[in-house]
Amino acid sequence: MKIDNIFLKIIYDSRGQETLKAIMRSGNIEVSSSVPHGKSVGEKEVFVMNPYTAVRKFEKIKERILNVEFADINDFDGFLLELDGTKNKSAFGGNLILVLSQAFCYLAAKKEKLELWQYLEKYISIKGKRKDLPLFLFNLINGGQHAVSGPRIQEYMIVPQIKDLKVCLETAQIFFAGLKEYFKKEFGKNVFGDEGGLIMLGEDYTKPLEIFEEIRDQLNLKDKIRFSLDVAADSFYNREKEKYEIKEDKSVSQKELLEIYTKLITRFDILSIEDPFEENDFEGFKALATNRKIKTIIIGDDLTATNYEVLEKAIKLKAINGVIIKPTQIGTISETLKTINLAIKNKIKIIISHRSAETEDNFIADLAWASRAWALKSGAPQPEERMVKYNRLIQISNYEKNHLL
Ligand code: PGA
Ligand code: ZN
Questions:
Q1: Does domain 5-113 have CATH number 3.30.390.10?
Q2: What residues pair up with 18 in beta bridges, in sequence order?
Q3: Which of 1, 117, 157, 332 has the fewest CB neighbours in a 10 Å radius?
């Protein structure tokens, strides 16, 4: 496939920060794609270029991309990686390379008259129908770096256990409505964080789970809702003191933090915990992931950064049983797919994830379906930039029901 033209635009993400959008043309087909931004960014992630600099840099390489015949996404990404020539994509920026990589996939899918997920599926190592629907991880209480106040644990999520994605979304919306009412009474008003969840006052990290339980029982959803956490522990780890500052007046060691988790897991119905320790503490992760008494799924995000080699290391060390996949962490779709295939091969659960500052691009929903992901994580069931991802996955699951099953 040859690309006839590419235009780059600067748009605003949900945090009001500038980000990149690419419009790509081939023949009479035109597609567009944009990229999100993270805040709790891991040190293993690729370099993010200032969007204005990225546009200027792109103008210099544009002519070299146009009119080249690309066989597929591997070929296209390989071409860009060679042009960049650095290990962490610092010449052009992971954001610039990814926005082009995503747009190429949209374009190639359209050329081949395929849905995006069908195009991506060609690069996934498992074939055939998916056995289970993906879960939705709805972030309803925002803490840590995504909130102006509240607990230092970054995300308190609910996970509906219902075999119909539309009903999962509706159930989460009912739950969220109950939570908003509770917060209004308790804190006087509703304030929302970066991912559209509610913000609370006070650093008590157990309280959100107590509130979740109360709402769940009030709504008679005991068998239908489980809870998940994204601790993003790196954000409150003090490297010099080697302590986790889980509250202003509570600084704990790795061992003490492990005990806190064990207590939370015993007390509440916690399905998964993401980034329970700082991003280089593979041993801490391992202590949780290999504890036979703990059934909770231990997920790496900043730990693994969608990076093939790092995931390989985490698997070898038995540090995780689930992995967050964010294309922005690695900067191309072909490398993202390679990391996904490694997770599949090793039976590591895949969670395809948005970032805290999003756009209305729903690429990750198709990626979640194509990769047989265990779950899609896209924030609260309310802001438009989060809803487009949930709705797209519902649409795909209906398509499969009607056409294939
Ligand atoms: P980020 O956070 O997008 O701000 O990095 C999301 C996460 O930690 O999962
Ligand atoms: Zn995370």
A1: yes
A2: 12
A3: 1
Q: Parallel, antiparallel, or unpaired: how do β-strands 349-353 and 322-325 relate?
A: parallel
pLDDT value of residue 403: 64
pLDDT confidence bin for 40, thresholds 50/70/90: confident
What pLDDT score was predicted for residue 405? Answer: 44
Ligand 1 centroid vs 355 CA: distance in angstroms? 5
Please tell me the distance from the alpha carbon of residue 28 to that of residue 387, in angstroms, as a whole number.
30
Residue ranges of domains in the chain? 5-113, 123-403
| Among protein residues, the one whose CA lies closest to atom 1 of ligand 1 | 38
User: One-letter amino acid identity for 139?
Assistant: N
Question: Which ligand has the shortest distance to the CA of 303?
Answer: 2
CATH code of the domain made up of 123-403: 3.20.20.120
- Would the pLDDT of 34 be above 60? yes
Structure-token pair, residue 20: 């990149």
Atom of ligand 1 nearest to the CA of 274: 9
Catalytic residue annotation: 195, 326
Phi and psi based region of residue 255 (left: phi greater than 0; alpha: psi -120 to 50; beta: remaining): alpha
Task: Of 213, 234, 296, 228, give the one whose Cα is nearest residue 262.
Answer: 296
Neighbours of ion ligand 2 (CB under 5 A): 230, 274, 301
How far, in Å, is the centroid of ligand 1 from the Cα of 29? 33
Q: Model's pTM, two decimal places? A: 0.98
Average the pLDDT over 45-52 and give the result: 98
The three-class DSSP label of residue 95 is: helix
For residue 230, give the ligand nearest its CA: 2
Within 10 angstroms of residue 273's Cβ, the number of other Cβ atoms is 25
3-state helix, strand, coil in the chain (%, to 5): 40, 20, 40
**Cα–Cα distance between 161 and 156 in angstroms, integer?**
16
For 152-184, write each residue's pLDDT tens digit. 999 999 999 999 999 999 999 999 999 999 999
pLDDT of residue 354: 98
- Ligand 2 centroid distance, CA of 147 (Å): 14
